[in-house]
Amino acid sequence: MSLNSRAIAALGAVVVVGAATVGTSVAIASGQTEHISHQATLKVGNSSIVAQPLCWNNGSPITEDLQQQCQDKATKALADGSLPTKDVVSSDSVGVGVSPNVAESGWWAFTNGGSTSGGGRFSLASYAKGPTWSGAQQANKLLNASGKTLITVVEGDKNSDNPIAVWYFQLNTQDS
Question: Going by C-beta distance under 8 Å and a sequence separation of 6 or more, which residues neighbour residue 45?
Fold first, then answer.
């Protein structure tokens, strides 16, 4: 049996439409309507959320003035509940990921919770250049006693005083 050119063209169209449908379905399922290349992901247990940077200067370092505006914006977002938020129980694992272009620049992540020996901070990812995943940590090590833990992800050069992008996530501690 041989396929004629019409059958081959029809089969090709089905493959293209099918691939486009799968690609669109994946984007819609993850809450995205288009490809996003500058993002951070917070994974808690078996679920995750993806966010754009709260503070970003189009890839240029964020100046000191803009850093103050960023902190003000974060404080307001935290107060009005508009930060990307996940519920967490102490037995969950928590990790952070970044897109490859962020990893190329270098990044780190930390929480405002954790042991007092760490100064009230817990490092999810020390400065890294290249890796896109922080690894998973037990939530009970990194949570703030208030029940609301802020996770900060920073893109930037280790030797620079000014970050390139900053993401914030909030964890809400739930009873186990």
Answer: 88, 89, 92, 93
Question: How far apart (Å, rounded) are the C-alpha atoms in residues 33 and 126?
Answer: 32
Element (H, E) at 21: helix 5-29
At residue 98, what is the residue type? V
**Type of residue found at 41:** T
Identify any residues that bridge with 63 across adjacent strands, giving them in sequence order: none
pLDDT at 83: 96
- C-alpha to C-alpha distance for 1 and 22, rounded to whole angstroms: 30
pLDDT digits (tens, 9 = 90+) for 59-113: 889 988 899 999 999 999 989 999 999 999 999 999 999 999 999 999 999 999 8
Residue with tokens 């508009």, as numbered in its chain: 82
Reference 124, options 160, 116, 113; nearest CA is 113
Q: How many CB atoms lie within 10 A of CB 33?
A: 9
Residue pair 47/84 in contact (Cβ under 8 Å)? The answer is no
Give the integer Cα–Cα distance in Å for 130 and 100.
7
- Residue tagged 């901070």 (tokens): 121
